[in-house]
User: What shape does this take?
Amino acid sequence: MLWLCEHGILPLYTPLSGSWLNMAESIQRILKRRALDGQHPETPQQIMDRFKTVAEVWNQHPTPFEWGGKRAARRQRARAKQHPHRLGGSGAVTQALVA
Assistant: This one.
């Protein structure tokens, strides 16, 4: 921990799982790509400066993030339908009865 701070690296502590973690990783991936693609920084300070600049520019016109997306829409459609029930090992199905 001390070595990281001495070398200008600020560790980011996040839980190993959580509903917001994928969104945080998306933001980190976007910032990294914008800050470092095609660049070859030679010092940690150059990396930090690039990230700071990218974050400042992004904050002027932030990208809106919303929960959901294609996967959530698929799940919503699946919940709205009655799922067919498979019959044995055949390809035949029956519709579920809603009680």
